[in-house]
Amino acid sequence: MATVTFFVVAVLAVASALGLILKRNPIHGALFLVINLACVAVLYLSLGAEFLAAAQVIVYAGAIMVLFVFAIMVLIPGKEETGPDPRRAVRLLALPVGALLFVQLAMIVRPRDARVPPPPAGGSAESLGTLLFTDYLFPFELTSVLLLAAMVGVLVLARRRPS
Amino acid sequence: MEHLALDALAAFILLNAVIGMVTYVTLLERKFAARMQSRIGPYRVGPHGLLQPIADALKLMMKEDIVPRAADRWVYNLAPIVFLIPCVLIFATIPFAPRLGLADLNIGVLFFLAVSSLEIVGLFMGGWGSNNKYALLSAMRAVNQIISYDLPFVFAALIPVVLAGSLQMSAIVAAQQGLWFVAYPVIGQLGFVAFLVATLAAENRVPFDILEAESELVAGFRVEYSGMKFAIIQLGEYAHMIASSFLGALLFLGGWLGPGSDIPAIGVLWFLLKAMLVFLVVTWVRWSFVRIRVDQILAVSWKLLLPATLGLLLVTAFWVALRGGAGA
Amino acid sequence: MVFAFAAAVAGALIWIPHLIAPRRLTAVKAQPFECGKDPIEVAEGRFAIKFSTIAIFFILIDIELIFIWPWAVLYRRLGWFGFAEMLVFLGILMFGFLYIWRKGGLEWE
Predict the structure, then answer these.
(1) Is C107 among the domain residues?
(2) pLDDT tens digit string along B133-169?
(3) Is B328 inside a domain boundary?
């Protein structure tokens, strides 16, 4: 049962990722992204990381998707961009950088055993919180500084300048 | 295999219960609204109009299903389904009495909020897929409003979680054995009111219904939907509202607790009664208040409810620590 | 399981009208709804950036909430230590929130 679920979800995840890349319409892409992120959440759930799964749904499938959609709506959705590409040079970099990323991923994945042992503490909110609020207290507090920087950044970038 | 069959049976029963409940809650709302306006409400179909919801359902099924030429067919047709699924799925986490529910998850409340936040995906798909100015504008407004009120909603829902020290729904009810959370001085009442207001807004009910302001946006994001697809969106909306009422009854009103609730059947009755009470309060507000403006809606959320619920959460935490929460 | 059933029922409900409902589609019916007038232009984009701004603030506080969930569950065990932790965390964030507020980032104009 678990194996069947895994393969169904995995195929769906890959298919929706392909849809995201291949679809011309950005809104279709965003909708495929939601399917993809939801599939990842189901995979987390099947690994016993229930808190992570819920967080994935709330932050990514819910909030990030809204942001993407709103960002698309600020531009002209449904229409293709035309005219010369202003960043041709940057585009040429994509291939070597992508290859580098692929090599890195391969190096991370390769030496490990395919069967990842379950995390020692489990994936519930309690076990996660126990670690977070004792051993990883400093990174936790630091996160708030990161979020603060993001807040200020948004305001600076998006606010209408007095003309 | 037997386990799987039992699961399927339970899911089947739950789904039917949800659909039955939704159809009859619409009648309850119409009757209630009519009484508020000195009318009788549905009366002709069946005794006291009791068969009205069934007649409505049949009528909607017989209606022609129109797909606008300009619509994005796939997105347009899938939207009602995507909208309905999370609204029904959240019922799976609600325990209706001790050990009577599909899944009493460890992260129950969190799961509820996570799944119900997916509702906006279907909503946006409907508004955008229709390719209609009003529908699109309405969907944008709706998403904007729902995300704005999601935050105070969660902060208010966290107050009982802090008091109970668990995300499991049955544990939260068990923690209210002595005193319902709504009866906790100041914290309970303010938390409950904040929860109700956030629920109203998250369900896009009056006075927070700018997304279907008839005078400007006709019928909101579902303006292009007709027949059964319209009915499904409506079904999802009501299902979500009832689920939120159940959550409110669970978090603040002690769930199934009440005199004689040791017997599961009476517990279920108590729970239903409390949930319907929450639902009627929401309906009462709907038929009593006027619509407020977009900027006012956002101001209420970001400048009033969000800081207030956050402060309330900290006060609750302070109080729990004062009573010696450590080690308890 | 509930997911599968919900999807099946929604699918069936959409399919039933195909059997019993009339289908008399005309060109007028298939037009976008516009209160009886001919639509002037199709619905498409260019929404104000204020929508995105609100969405980003929402995400930031949503992420903050993800940290508060486990805290709320564990709070009874953490006691005053947990209270202080969260006060520092929220204090830094609320500083940012107040900054946005004072600078008019929450105005819908």
Answers:
(1) no
(2) 778 888 888 888 888 888 899 999 999 888 888 888 8
(3) no
Condensed to tens digits (0 to 9), the pLDDT of residues B198-243 reads: 888 877 776 677 666 666 666 677 777 777 788 888 888 888 888 8
Q: What is the per-residue pLDDT for B8?
A: 77
Question: For residue B38, what are its two tokens?
Answer: 């000195």
Enclosing domain of residue C79: 2-102
* CA–CA dist C14, C10 (Å, integer): 6
Domain that holds residue A14: 1-79
- The answer to whether residue A65 neighbours chain B at the CB level (below 8 Å) is yes
Q: Determine the pLDDT at residue A98.
A: 92
CATH of the domain at C57: 1.20.58.1610
Partner chains of B (3+ C-beta pairs under 8 Å): A, C
Q: Looking at the domain assignment, is residue B39 inside a domain? A: yes
pTM of the model: 0.85
Q: Is A39 within 8 Å of chain B by CB?
A: no
Q: What is the mean pLDDT of residues B303-318?
A: 89
pLDDT reported for residue A103: 92
CA–CA distance, B135 with B221 (Å, rounded to integer): 4
Q: Is A93 on the interface with B (CB under 8 A)?
A: no
On whether residue B177 sits in a domain, the answer given is: yes
In-domain check, residue A99? no
pLDDT at A118 exceeding the cut of 60: no
Is B85 close to C10, i.e. CB distance below 8 A?
Answer: yes
Inter-chain CB proximity B111 and A54 less than 8 Å:
yes
Domain that holds residue B44: 1-62
Q: Cβ of A64: how many Cβ atoms within 10 Å?
A: 19
**Which of B107, B118, B125 is opposite residue A62, by nearest beta carbon?**
B118
Give the largest CA-CA distance in chain C: 69
How many folded domains does chain C comprise?
A: 1
Is B97 in a helix, a strand, or coil?
strand
CB contact under 8 A, C17 and B62: yes
Verify cis geometry, omega within 30 degrees of 0, for the bond prior to B207.
yes
User: Tell me, what's the pLDDT at A117?
Assistant: 58
Neighbours of B281 (CB within 10 A): 15
Q: Which of C65, C67, C74 sits opposite A140 (nearest CB)?
A: C67
Q: What percent of chain A is predicted at pLDDT more than 90?
A: 10
Instruction: Confirm or reject contact between C102 and chain A (CB < 8 A).
Output: no
DSSP letter for A161, please. Answer: P
Measured in angstroms, the CA of A58 and the nearest CA of chain B are apart by 5
B193 found inside a domain: yes
Instruction: Indicate if the pLDDT at residue B326 is higher than 50.
Output: no
B140 contacts A62? CB cut-off 8 A:
no
Report the chain A residue with the minimal C-alpha distance to residue B72.
A28
Do A67 and A133 fall within a single domain? Answer: no
